[in-house]
Amino acid sequence: MSISPPPVPAPATPLAAASAVACHAHKFGGSSLANAERIRHVAALLREEDAARIVVVSAMQGVTDALTALANCALAKQPWEDDFRALRARHLDTAHALDAGGVHALAAWLEDEFATLHAQLSAPKRSPEWFAEVQGVGEVWASRLLHAALGDDASRWAVLDARDVLEVHAGELGVGVDWPASRARLLAWRGARPHANVIATGFIARNGNGVATTLGRNGSDYSAAIFAVLFEARELTIWTDVDGVLSADPRLVPDAVCLASMSYAEACELAYFGAKVLHPQTMAPAMHAGLPIRIRNTLDPEAPGTLITAQSQPAASPVKGLSLVPDMAMLELTGAGLIGVPGTAERMFAALHTACVSVTMISQGSSEHSICCVLRADQAERGRRAVQAAFRDAIADGQVEGVRITPGVSVLAAVGDGMVGTTGVSARLFHGLAQARVNIRAIAQGASERNISVAIASEDATRGLRAAHAAFWLSPQTLSIGLIGPGNVGRALLAQFAQAASRYGGGASGLDLRLRAIANSRRMHLAPRRLDPGEAVEALELGQALDFDRFAAHVRAEHLPHAMIVDCSGSDAVAAHYADWLAAGIHVVTPNKQAGAGPIERYRAIRAATRNGGGHFRYEATVGAGLPVIQTLRSQLDTGDELTEVEGVFSGTLAWLFNRFDGSVPFSQLVREARDAGYTEPDPRDDLGGLDVARKLVILAREAGRELSLEDVEIESLVPPALREVSREDFLARLHELDAPLQARLDAAKREGRALRYLARLDRNGRARVGLVSPEPNHASLHSQLTDNLIQFRTRRYASNPLVVQGPGAGPEVTAAGVFGDILAIAQALGARP
Ligand SMILES: NC(=O)C1=CN([C@@H]2O[C@H](COP(=O)(O)OP(=O)(O)OC[C@H]3O[C@@H](n4cnc5c(N)ncnc54)[C@H](O)[C@@H]3O)[C@@H](O)[C@H]2O)C=CC1
Ligand SMILES: N[C@@H](CC=O)C(=O)O
């Protein structure tokens, strides 16, 4: 789209010279003037500035709509008195609050105003001028309210009713300004009012006959630009209730960012395509006069806002903003008879013009076999009939197939001066949309290269907008992370996240790990943007009841490129969700062995989900905690080797216990110490009963392609039968019952000059056993220490001398590091260079 601003004739007598001061123009919208408190706040903002000021005001929030409704009711002879009284009361209340001492006689003045309005609404004569007078009176009231709010300073301010000065006419493309006449009137008006500062009414004006009129919806911004030019202001600040122009609608894109600067052309493109920036008409006088416009937040005046000037400032992204126009329809004219025939487009668009149908986007392939355009949905049927009528004969002759309307369409536009001459912008947009599975129905890019527009199904619109935003504003390696299970391991992981925050916050590495949700067995907390890892556990205390579906849906945010759930629980109930999460594209990382060693059908479903294009699944920390056990095995298998046997110490807890157990301290006391150190499973019977070791053996066997299950493993339990079924608390209370049988095993081993070790073994025949043994004195397990795991792989390549992985195999820190490593490995697979 190209906007050519209407000419703004140079002043015959410079007004700034006439008024002798260069001023700064401000415009306050209805939200900034919603009540007495806001109006006082605006007055305070104005008092802070030393320069001369011209301030253009809208009506108080909602007042123009209320006046329009009153006028419509009066026209339709429907009751309007109640609404009139409410409007009067609202203004009088505000007047009393702002002019309590009656210094400005504001209430009395307003009473007169409302009496006039009442008479107007009751009058039998109704004309367009009448309507404009009723509709525009809110700005007159607002200007007086703000004047009163200036208090002692008010004497330095004059109030300007724009109808005394601003002369406009209905132009072909909207309201046009009669610049020479307006300038002359302003000079005359100014001559009688030498005040340094002026409050002018927005929205309203007069026509050449001196009759009241308005500048159309959102006309106050236009008024502000016109007055800024007329007063030759250095800059125009438009005050609103947001921080500036955002990269996309923040209600749809939570990650939308405030733009520091943009060009007039960018602002026009965005405004036209649905972003609530400024109406393009507003920009026209400013563009012509080279007037900088700044958008600022009344509620946060310190925020720098967005500066709109002729020159686009260089920015990180070639795209400045994304906009979305909903409620559109696509009209398509197709037929072999269109090919190479001149004048087809002219006929189609002339028909639409005659039917008063506005066209938003046009697309035609070079084959000329079809031509399509996007229209407002409520004009689509009218457009279809018009085009059908224009091509009636060609349709009857079969040269044109017909006119088709596709409803439910939205137009998504990427806008930016930086797109001009930059390669790869459309590739990024289309790739982002493709990743979000958004189908593109039609594409348009003008030769200005400032705008790429796509027509997409409205049901995909929000997802498409978010995906496109992520493609341009976020690192493509932004991971939305949900953590389940902030226990020993989960908390250690949070601490590691906190420590690495500066590295993985989307900075130099490009990788942005965003913790956005946390859950324990009872509660969850979902953060819209980002959770501070240092405060996540505390936030959980105030969370809501755990609901896995909502948790996963939140983590899989459409506005973020990737989603990951990190399960640091030991729960089977959580593992039961993995296949669904993976199938939905959510990556899963876990130290929880329940999935890798759980029912074989579930394991197969998980594998199938990852194979069929789902998320990545990594669970390195399930065996050997932070040790590279699974990846070592994988790299052998992936390079063509074959596992024949695996044997070793698979439990950090049992390694630590039997490294320490020499009879000097009861076994039960050592178990308590291991538990306190965070080595044991949530229920230490999983370690002592051999289940934890058996699970790890199953995981490795399955990794090597064997369909082993827990039932296939011969397990020796160190837990006496009487303690196997009791509650965890009872078990811990009766731990001493382990002491005598284990002391007896130790004594027997010592008598043979041996020690005890709990070993796991999968032999070449597929036999799997875990249990307590007294190994030969030269066995490697006797030369390990503390929580050392020792995993010996015998493969075809490592046949006579096994491949050994050894090191600490339990503890929150090393386990969390293993989990963190898996997260980074997935990020790397997604393209990050952590
Ligand atoms: N501690 C260690 O050295 C190692 C632990 N692991 C594994 O790490 C996992 C966690 O171990 P720890 O942190 O020591 O356990 P923990 O008992 O300290 O923490 C478990 C956490 O999971 C949560 N949780 C339990 N059931 C849940 C459910 N149904 N839904 C949501 N949350 C649930 C709990 O609320 C708690 O926050 C276990 O699967 C364990 O096998 C793996 C390797 C080493
Ligand atoms: N409890 C387990 C923790 C790691 O899987 C162990 O002691 O090895």
Task: Output the keywords.
31 helices; elongated; 38% helix; Rossmann fold; 31 strands; VC0802-like; Carbamate kinase; 834 residues; alpha/beta; eight-stranded mixed sheet; binds the ligand N[C@@H](CC=O)C(=O)O; seven-stranded mixed sheet; disordered N terminus; binds 1,4-dihydronicotinamide adenine dinucleotide
Can you characterise this structure?
It comes from Lysobacter yangpyeongensis. Residues 333-391, 413-472 form the Aspartokinase ACT domain. The protein is of the alpha/beta class and 834 residues long. The chain folds into four domains: 15-58 and 138-309, Carbamate kinase; 321-473, VC0802-like, CATH 3.30.2130; 477-624 and 819-829, NAD(P)-binding Rossmann-like Domain (Rossmann fold); 629-809, 2-Layer Sandwich (Dihydrodipicolinate Reductase, domain 2). The protein is built from 31 helices and 31 strands. The strands form six sheets. The protein has an eight-stranded mixed beta sheet with strand order 3-6-2-1-9-11-12-10. It has a seven-stranded mixed beta sheet with strand order 22-21-20-19-23-24-25, sandwiched between helices. Strands 14-15-13-16-18-17 form a six-stranded antiparallel beta sheet. The radius of gyration is 37 Å and the shape is elongated. 1,4-dihydronicotinamide adenine dinucleotide is lined by residues 484-490, 519-521, 568-571, 573-574, 591-593, 621, 625, 678-679, 681-682, 810-812, 815.
